[in-house]
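=== Given protein ===
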Amino acid sequence: GWTPALAEKLLLPRQALHCAEIDMRAAGLERVFSVPLPADLRAFCESRGLPLNADIAGAAGPGPDPLR
């Protein structure tokens, strides 16, 4: 089972999952939802020298309207 000792071995205290964009147009809805990478995941990637796409990371500014 899950133990505190196992939790201490994690590199990140949560799942490293992120959906930068969901395009609903293929389903017949004129909606595209976008969101930048959360600060904790951005910091995790930067601390390990992992490349970040500026659009996903939000480094290029606030990004597009999430309900465009």
Summary: Residues 59-63 have pLDDT under 50 and may be disordered. The chain is about 25% helix and 10% strand. The first strand starts at residue 21 and ends at 23. The chain has one domain: 18-68.
